[in-house]
Design a protein that fits this description.
This protein has 109 residues and is mainly alpha-helical. The chain has one domain. It has three helices and two strands, in the order H-H-H-E-E. It is rod-shaped.
Length: 109
């Protein structure tokens, strides 16, 4: 029974972090990724509290998930930048530009 307070602490600690992430979720670009972290954190805490996994195993699972979430965020950001670049290129290609030198400057339209 010595570990019982520590086990309940896992759930309380996870809930505290999850409450903070729920606030953070309102300002991030990909809130669904934060939702995944919230769910996994509670799953791990419950696993620790029930004795199904050790704290070390739980930390490993959360670390692996965080790596996956960072990778997914980078993929999404890269895809969005690629689309914006293609859109900008299409707009530039479809609108001819004419430049004229006027005194010491160049005017393009």
């Amino acid at each position: 029974m010595r570990n019982k307070p520590a086990l309940f602490t896992a759930i309380a600690r996870a809930q505290c972090f999850n409450d903070a992430d729920k606030v953070y979720c309102q300002i991030v670009r990909y809130p669904d990724l934060i939702d995944l972290r919230i769910a996994k954190r509670m799953e791990v805490a419950e696993g620790i509290a029930s004795g199904k996994i050790t704290c070390a195993q739980g930390m490993l699972e959360l670390s692996q998930l965080q790596t996956q979430l960072v990778d997914e965020e980078q993929k999404r950001s890269l895809a969005a930048r690629s689309v914006r670049a293609q859109e900008a290129a299409a707009i530039t290609a479809s609108s001819p530009t004419t430049c004229t030198k006027y005194r010491n400057s160049v005017v393009c339209f």
